[in-house]
Write a structure and sequence with these properties.
Elements lengths: L3 H39 L5 H5 L13 H33 L3 H14 L3 H16 L4 H25 L3 H9 L4 H12 L1 H15 L4 H4 L19 H10 L3 H32 L2
Helix pairs in contact: 1-12, 3-6, 3-9, 4-6, 5-6, 6-9, 7-8, 9-12, 11-12
């Protein structure tokens, strides 16, 4: 106890631990504050009309977010359907074949850059390569923008999950004469399935709350539509417009929609964490 080095290390350890606990408490405080405000302001306006009626026009009372909920599910579903196979195949190359090669290093660097790219920049990019050549806004353009946002998340999480599989499992299967592609499909994928699904859920939770790229791609629609070739409403985009609007019923719908969206993402994150925890057992 009288050793000066020991006392110094112990003081530094206690200081770092106190700072970490204080900052964690600060983050939890603001998170709890956000949830409290959403529940207080939004819970009173959650009713069947919110899910069944379409978004109201300017100055029209009532209405809901039914068309926006449907549009968000369609575009997010299309986006994750486009991003998942590409992301899994890219991660398979990185973890199983590229590993630490120069090409794999470059691909991982580009993926990290894409992971941190502002979503509004991706929206402008898709506007230039999809919306302008086609001559109109559409749900397909929104889905492509969301797929570009989901892709690096899928690649990063799947790459990490595949690298956690011990090489001894691959070597044992190859020693028995199993082809490499069968080792990847039947052993590596099966062993990391829960982790891959977790990554896909995290990517879905990431894109379902995006508003900026949809302003340049799907634009929005006041009515119900299931046609991906037409402009389509999405919850984040409607919330942005309603929150900026001057009408009281728009503000009420925006608070209720924000609460429902937050709870939906929270459930997705809990499911992803449970799957991730089960894969580590």
């Amino acid at each position: 106890m009288s050793n000066p080095k020991y006392l110094r290390r112990r003081v530094i350890n206690l200081f770092n631990m106190a700072v970490a606990i204080a900052l964690t408490g600060l983050a939890l405080f603001f998170l709890g504050w956000i949830l409290y405000v959403l529940v207080v302001r939004g819970i009173g306006y959650i009713n069947p009309a919110l899910f069944l009626q379409s978004t109201p026009g300017a100055g029209i009372p009532g209405g809901g977010l039914g068309n926006a909920f449907v549009g968000s599910l369609i575009m997010s579903g299309l986006g994750i359907a486009l991003a998942t196979p590409i992301g899994i195949l890219a991660a398979t190359y990185l973890a199983e074949f590229g590993q630490r090669s120069r090409i794999a290093t470059v691909v991982r660097f580009i993926n990290d850059v894409l992971l941190s790219a502002p979503s509004i920049v991706i929206g402008v990019f898709v506007y230039g390569v999809v919306v302008e050549p086609s001559g109109h806004f559409s749900a397909w353009a929104g889905a492509i923008a969301l797929a570009i946002i989901a892709l690096p998340v899928t690649v990063r999480t799947t790459d990490t999950m595949l690298q956690l599989i011990p090489d001894q499992m691959r070597e044992a299967a190859i020693a028995l004469g199993t082809p490499r592609w069968k080792v990847t499909v039947w052993i590596v994928y099966r062993s990391s399935l829960a982790g891959i699904v977790t990554g896909v859920l995290l990517a879905f939770a990431r894109i379902v709350g995006e508003a900026a790229p949809l302003l340049f791609t799907s634009l929005g629609n006041q009515f119900f539509t299931g046609d991906p070739n037409q402009p389509m409403a999405a919850v984040p985009q409607v919330l942005f417009n309603f929150a900026m609007g001057p009408y009281e019923n728009w503000h009420q719908i925006a608070w209720a929609g924000a609460l429902v969206s937050t709870l939906f993402v929270l459930v997705l994150m809990i499911v992803a964490r449970l799957l991730s925890a089960s894969s580590k057992r």
